[in-house]
Design goal:
This protein is of the alpha/beta class. The protein is built from four helices and three strands.
Amino acid sequence: MVLLDFRLGDMTGDLVARKIREMKPMGLKTKFVLIAAFEFDEGVVSKLKEAMAIEGKLDKPFGLLDLEKTITETLLP
């Protein structure tokens, strides 16, 4: 599982996730969660999930319980 910040300078986290997925076989098995300091439009999140770019999102600020819940939901659906 990889936690990726959405804003990464000149690239976004979902683009990084897509590039990693292109590297086989590791990219196909990896699960990605985007972290963002702003509210994501749920339509955007749904489209990224449908495109298999990400498996989930986590909003900043988050605590350990939020992180644990996200990890559990992502790895043990």
